[in-house]
């Protein structure tokens, strides 16, 4: 096969317009129930669900289709404990002032602090890494393109897939996150992008009211 071969778009599905209106409304009703959760149950989650959701994330569009991402799915309690310990070391400094006053003020309505028990409680942590070099073939070492955009889109699809499966998530970003390379045994050239916390919410889970305030369609869009 030449490397610019084409194949028919065989799996596009067309729906009647009214079906499309309904489907788009249904999707909105489902996705607006997604909330970042910080209190997780320790109930286990079947590995096959995590695998399928990562498969979904891996379908994301990416620069030159190089797929510049790697997902490290952690369920081992010892590894989760280490992640928590290292994250809390960074977060203590972050909340003690390294973040700066403006940032800490912006976070106040969320009520977050340097304690991250969910990193041990939740059954799965998915560390997402961005690869500045790689390529599509295993072992390639070519330049990757639009890496942050590509990994951001894949992460969005991952969140949707996990939510759709019936799981709660938190896009956690301990700062800095470089400690994840060592724990996850990923090359120093890979940039930790987001640490996704995955599981069932605890029965008494709450969310900040601040987080429920979504901008309206009018606020976020313009139609020309
Ligand atoms: N990484 C910290 C701080 C934090 C930063 C932002 I921007 C948030 O939206 C939420 C938290 C933490 O996880 O607590």
Task: Characterize the structure shown.
It comes from Oceanospirillum sediminis. One of its GO terms (molecular function) is oxidoreductase activity. Keywords: Flavoprotein, FMN, Oxidoreductase. This is Nitroreductase family protein. By secondary structure, the chain is of the alpha+beta class. The protein has one domain: NADH Oxidase. It contains 9 helices and 6 strands; from the N terminus they run ααβαααβββαβαβαα. The strands form 2 sheets. Strands 1-2-6-5 form a 4-stranded antiparallel β-sheet. The radius of gyration is 19 Å and the shape is globular. The mean pLDDT is 97. 3-iodo-tyrosine (IYR) binds next to helix 3. The site of 3-iodo-tyrosine (IYR) has 9 residues, from helix 3.
Structural class comes to: alpha+beta
The gross shape turns out to be: globular
The CATH architecture would be 3-Layer(aba) Sandwich
How much is the average pLDDT?
97
> Count of helical segments?
9
CATH topology category name: NADH Oxidase
Instruction: Provide the CATH superfamily.
Output: NADH Oxidase
Side-by-side strand order of the widest sheet: 1-2-6-5
Give the cofactors and ligands.
3-iodo-tyrosine
Q: Could you spell the SSE succession in H and E letters?
A: HHEHHHEEEHEHEHH
Oligomeric status:
single chain
Name of the top-level CATH class: Alpha Beta
Total number of distinct structural domains:
1
Strand-residue proportion = 5-15%
- Total beta-strand segments: 6
Largest sheet: 4 strands, antiparallel
**Distance from first to last alpha carbon:** 43 Å
Cα radius of gyration in angstroms = 19 Å
